[in-house]
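hey m, so remember when u said the tokens were messed up on ur end? i reran from scratch. heres the input so u can diff it against urs
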Amino acid sequence: MDEGAAHADGHGSRWGAPEAAATAQVWVTTADGGKRLERGEDVSFDGGKQDVDIAVDASARGQQFTGAGASLTEASAGLISRLPGGEREKLMKGLFSTDGDGIGLDYLRQPLGGSDFVARLPYYSYEDEQGSFSVERDRKEILPLLRQALGINSGIRVMGTPWSAPAWMKDSGKLEGGSLKPENYEAYADYLVKAVRAYAEEGVPVHDLTAQNEPLFETTYPSMGMSAAQQADFLRVLDQKLGAAGLDTELFAYDHNWDKPEYPLEVLEKTDDIERVQGAAFHCYGGEPEAQQQVRDAGGRVFFTECSGTDSDEPANTFADSLKWQTENLVVRSLRSGAETVVLWNMALDKNGGPHFGNCGTRCNGVVEIDGGSVAKNAEYYSLGHVSKFVDRGARRIGSTTQQPGGVENVVFENPDGSRAAVVLNSAGSPRKFSVTESGHSLAYELPAGAVATFTWPAAPTG
């Protein structure tokens, strides 16, 4: 039997039931890329409990699942738009549909204006000259692709995030760095309301909004410093403007790394009377995912909204390293720490990790790599797909025992229809045999080193 395939322990049915034991479907991605979301043989809940056992407890209920995806940055949109028609259609269906080998992405975090991943310079905002608001640059490639994605999957939810206020609103007088002048809080809130309205008029509703990407990082591309106290004050103004415009867009604080949870906690405390402020968004570039739990424990929702794939020091190891790191940190640990979303950064980049004009110490990677007319699916495609294809919006995380990094790690969800989806990573350096047990019934399985599997079964197994 192929390595990683299902195998029974030879005991047969241990409960003497007249009907067959429940079975789980399984999909596997291996570290060498030999299997990529490949359907394996079904495995029955008629095995023996192993020394490593994932005990599933559906009575222990955690946060809901809201979605998985990435960002159709201008860099990504330009590359995808230039694909030959057939290849573009195939890629978009693969990304946003669950049919066939599609992974069904359903959450997109969209820069509102320029970011470090524009298709070309200059950087831009929607109102570079005061009084001349326009999303015209986004109409060229970004908005048509967003409409195409929504046509494939109408359930896609969109978050809008600005990298900077227009330069004239800032003390620096430029898009790169600096802070929003307090006297321009209302003008900036009006600007974001216009952006949400403009996108809606283009057929792209913006459901969620953050006030500033990475507010603690001022740099050489569009960026803007904003303290927690300033953000709390600004969110109060933005809430009033959104309300006056009749918009139900929800607000999330912070949108920066795991290492400063005190920032969103301060914002949420100071805005706890504003229903629209739902929680906080996090990135992966500093700290540990468990920090998110502090926001969840304080009553806030947690959205994980950005992590860029990068090349390994030894490029040949990139697929294996990325699959393992992302599944461990962005799927298992982040979701076990309260996150409702798994959102990577660029949806597509070229063979040079571009086009981009920012900071990538090692080459940045998108969900896919586009080289001319050809598309290659990176590890990011599969780390997302092991969740997005099988966990539906509104699913609830349920209890499951797990090993720590370096072992067999997992996260389990119960979908709205009662079905289960368990994402399991073998982060050990050798194959590991384990069991998944629910309601006294166990399936036994073995995963190669660094491999990921998603198990789905209809409901609590009975025999």
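this time it looks ok to me. The longest strand covers residues 53-64. if urs says something different then somethings off w ur setup not the seq
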